[in-house]
Design goal:
The complex is a heterodimer of chains A (363) and B (127). By secondary structure, chain A is an alpha+beta fold. Chain A is built from eight helices and 19 strands. Among the domains of chain A are: 137 residues, Gyrase A, domain 2; 74 residues, Beta Barrel (Elongation Factor Tu (Ef-tu), domain 3), CATH 2.40.30. The chains are: A alpha+beta (363), B alpha+beta (127).
Chain lengths: 363, 127
């Protein structure tokens, strides 16, 4: 194991008193003031997240669309300029290499935003699968800083620093504009289940923008760590790579079928396996559970029905907005109906739970 | 923060001695390291606990941690308030956040524990 990677905000996090953790090889803040307080700030006011560890990979050239249609599960031909599309990079088996966002700059230029710990793997995967397509694949991660501002007050706070009329940016759209005099990519996206923006800037400007956003946000904004980011995305049932989907869990099992364009003309890697899985009936699916007895479900815990193992927890936590102990379960499709009672094995005890509708939280 | 009238274990539990009974909780340092406590599991009255073995569980939003007993003996009281209000461990670790009361098998085992001064030195060393 080498030294941990650091974002441009590393020293700022430390000065703010953050607790730092190793997150997939990155030295990242898990919390500042406390996960619950940060979580609630995002639901009621605004939170600021350092997401500079995320990877940015640019695919450009005359064959950019052709190449992406081959690599990605969703139909990239449907994306308009300055629109964003959620997408999945699959293995031939139908398992998942990574999930990512495609930003269309123009017909020959796409910016992909990928999970931090998968950046190197994805970049290699793209290079390995480039055949005769006329495309350039560029890892822009080191030059790019990224800050997410999330919550009901995100727009009004960010608006103080930019002339771009943020109200014009619709969900999953983006634009370029000045933020505090710095040229940025501003997108209406996020990973919290709240309204909000993600701002991409030159890495050397990240500290300036972070400090300025905290300053103009005043009492309405809190710096938030990866702990709150996880509980927020969990309540909104936004999937996390390595949990709800992985090389062993297909997007169809993860409930991401609407991002798998089995009807698109082009063959994409994993298409035939996913088609076969759909035709045969998807054997497992991700559902939500609420504990009926005392206990917190945690990732990896076994889930049983009448004593027989039928699945496992992919993410589980105390849910701060709902004040409940909840979990997501990858479960045998035969036992996945809402209302089904089952048990979670917590420290060798079978603790009662019930399948409930998801997402747990909707704004 | 370390309280002078208490004794401490290397696993960051504190002990308040009252005759042959001791009240047990986790130290301020331990609650700080855990973060927001959202779940507590305690033994039942009458259960036996053994020094350096787990007697319960404390869960924060992110982590599950065992709580190790600093002494051996019989549980004579548990803090039921923690079952509904686990956050008391964060807000008042040395007071309302106490966990269990144990009747000691043998009072001499307390000699193994650290004084407040020794615990403070121990924390500095751990840093």
């Amino acid at each position: 194991m080498g030294e941990l990677k650091k974002t441009p905000l590393n020293q700022v996090h430390r000065a703010l008193g953050a607790k730092m953790v190793d997150f997939g090889g990155w030295d990242m803040p898990v919390q500042y003031s406390g996960i619950i307080e940060e979580h609630k700030a995002v639901r009621t006011k605004a939170g600021l997240f350092d997401v500079s560890h995320m990877g940015e990979i640019r695919v450009k050239g005359p064959d950019a669309l052709k190449f992406l249609q081959k690599m990605l599960s969703n139909d990239v031909s449907k994306v308009k300029t300055y629109q964003i599309q959620y997408n999945i990079l699959c293995l031939p088996s139908g398992g998942v290499v990574d999930d990512l966002l495609v930003h269309k700059e123009n017909d020959n230029d796409y910016l992909l935003v990928v999970n931090a710990s998968n950046t190197d793997k994805d970049f290699k995967w793209f290079l390995e699968h480039k055949e005769d397509e006329d495309v350039e694949i560029i890892d822009e991660s080191p030059e790019t800083g990224q800050i997410a501002i999330q919550g009901p007050l995100a727009e009004s706070i960010l608006q103080k620093l930019t002339d771009v009329n943020l109200a014009d940016i619709k969900f999953y759209r983006y634009t370029y504009g000045q933020v505090d005099g710095v040229k940025c990519l501003i997108s209406r996206t996020g990973y919290t289940g709240e309204d909000g923006f993600e701002v991409y800037c030159p890495q050397e400007k990240t500290v300036q923008l972070w400090n300025k956003l905290l300053e103009v946000g005043g009492d309405n904004i809190l710096p938030c760590g990866l702990g709150a980011r996880d509980t927020l995305r969990f309540e909104a049932k936004l999937p996390l790579y390595g949990h709800e989907m992985s090389e062993e869990i297909t997007p169809l099992e993860a409930g991401l079928g609407r991002f798998v364009a089995l009807d698109k003309e082009e063959d994409f890697i994993g298409k035939s396996a996913l088609k076969a899985q759909k035709e045969a009936g998807v054997p497992r699916k991700v559902v939500g559970i609420e504990m009926l007895e005392r206990g917190i479900p945690r990732a990896g815990y076994a889930v049983k029905k009448d004593g027989k193992e039928i699945g496992f927890i992919t993410t589980g936590s105390y849910a701060p907005s709902l004040d409940k102990n909840l979990g997501l379960v990858l479960i045998d499709s035969a036992h996945a109906d809402i209302g089904t009672e089952l048990t979670v094995s917590i420290r060798n005890k079978d603790v009662k739970a019930q399948i409930v509708p998801t997402p747990f939280y909707k704004r | 923060m370390v309280k002078s009238e208490l004794k401490y274990s290397k696993d960051h539990e504190w002990v308040l001695v009252d005759g042959n009974k001791v009240k047990i909780g986790i130290s301020d340092h331990a609650q700080e390291a855990l973060g927001d406590v959202v779940f507590v599991e305690l033994p039942e009255e009458g259960d036996e606990v053994t020094a350096n073995e787990s007697f319960g569980t404390v869960e924060s939003v992110k982590a599950v941690s065992d709580v190790y007993s600093p002494v051996s003996g019989k549980v004579v009281e548990i803090n039921e308030a923690l079952l509904d209000s686990p956050e008391l461990i964060n807000s008042d670790p040395y007071g309302e956040g106490w966990m269990i009361v144990v009747e000691l098998d043998d009072a001499s085992q307390l000699d193994e524990l650290m004084s407040a001064e020794e615990y403070e030195a121990f924390l500095k060393e751990e840093e």
